[in-house]
Amino acid sequence: MKTALVLNGPNLNLLGTREPAVYGSQTLADVEALCVKACASHGFKLDFRQSNHEGVLIDAIHEAGRAQAAGTLAGVILNAGAYTHTSVALHDAIKGAGVTLIELHISNVHAREAFRHHSYISPAAKAVMAGFGVKGYGLAIAGLAALAELAQPA
Ligand code: CA2
Known about the structure:
The structure is a single chain. About 40% of the residues lie in helices and about 20% in strands. The protein contains five helices and five strands, in the order βααβαβαββα. A five-stranded parallel sheet has the order 2-1-3-4-5, with helices on both faces. α2 runs parallel beside α5. The longest helix has 17 residues, at about 135-150. It is globular, with a radius of gyration of 14 Å. The structure holds ligand CA2. Ligand CA2 binds near residues 106 and 107.
């Protein structure tokens, strides 16, 4: 059974505590529970993480690249939070690790402030999902299963 790594960036530990109109009222623990269910129904094991530190996220992406090369990881779902709009280092890490990665946002970043319209992650990602609220995490896990099937058709 392969693992799906769900990686959350800065401030996502605050989910459910503020800005419910933008991010909903579910907490990150609720999101993890939703991901456990989605992974179970798609035959993945879940590795769920959050960090407020860019270097920790970079290390996790490098680790994911090694795990995918070893055949134990299906890919990464990354909500890089605000680092999406600032981090060339995360862009380089994704490219360098050669990992299959789905960029995810809870909100529709393109319908928000102009500074959220540009993503350094998108050009290095296999797919992008935004605007489905926290349900997007479940949809992205289904997407990872679909990508795995595309790569190895039955
Ligand atoms: O929509 C998303 O998922 C974002 O990645 C969330 C980031 C934001 O900077 C991106 O532009 C879009 C912010 C995550 C912080 O989440 C909070 C949740 C509740 C209270 C405070 C912050």
